[in-house]
């Protein structure tokens, strides 16, 4: 039997379980497919998937499985362009700037020497991020030259993607950021992620509180979503003391557990209804 919606995953999190339950509530036939067990005959057009909601955590599984399915004629949310562009912080930054979306100032350097020279010109502190990654991993605050030399030297011995040194301004802001969940052209819910640490990721101990969605925030999120060709995304923003709202990330397979809990919004049902064309 063909599915209304297929959820393609490589890790079962709260969010994927919630999609299963939402399908039962909304009478939407949801097919759960583990990407790690998936083999696709690229010469055939599959009929059993319906619309696919891409939920793979792995960047590489995500974009390659999306590419294969789209090449076979399957609709995938989010599309390959979104997976590639939103999954890379440098790509996202450049597209946000092109779309006129305020974003933290950043530089990119392609060797330790160039990175150190950039830091001397821009000044400290600075935040170094891997261009591909999630959950705050391998993101470090560089307070001075000694810290920068040690961290960048270590990255020079890692996989080549970590030798692309993406250096972002340390934004002066309240001790929080904002995660807005978008389904189509609407912010369906938003939360503050509060933390005493400069990293606000929920995986690192951030505490969620409801955030009121203003017209400014929603308009900025729509522009950010469109910049990476997204449909269902999470947009992360900071409240700069100097520049106001800044978008620092767009999440292709966004987590929304704490947003549902704090805002009491049935995000998984909204996602399924959107994918199934019922909204």
Summary tags:
4-stranded parallel β-sheet, 5-stranded antiparallel β-sheet, D-amino Acid Aminotransferase, Chain A, domain 1, Rossmann fold, alpha+beta, Dna Ligase, domain 1, 279 residues
Would you spell out the secondary-structure blueprint of this structure?
Layout: E1 5-9, H1 14-26, E2 30-34, E3 51-54, H2 59-71, E4 76-77, H3 80-86, H4 89-98, E5 106-109, H5 112-122, E6 126-129, E7 140-142, H6 145-155, E8 165-169, E9 176-183, E10 186-194, E11 207-210, H7 215-227, E12 232-240, E13 244-251, H8 257-263, H9 267-275
Parallel strand pairs: 1-2, 1-3, 3-4
Antiparallel strand pairs: 5-8, 6-7, 6-8, 9-10, 9-12, 10-11, 12-13
Task: Tell me what you see in this structure.
The protein is an alpha+beta fold and 279 residues long. The chain folds into three domains: 5-77, Rossmann fold (3-Layer(aba) Sandwich), CATH 3.40.50; 106-169, Dna Ligase, domain 1 (2-Layer Sandwich); 172-272, ATP-grasp fold, B domain (D-amino Acid Aminotransferase, Chain A, domain 1, 2-Layer Sandwich). It has nine helices and 13 strands. The protein has a five-stranded antiparallel β-sheet with strand order 11-10-9-12-13, with helices on both faces. The protein has a four-stranded parallel β-sheet with strand order 2-1-3-4, with helices on both faces. Helix 1 (14-26) packs across helix 9 and helix 5 runs antiparallel to helix 6 (145-155). It is globular. The two termini are 23 Å apart. The mean pLDDT is 94.
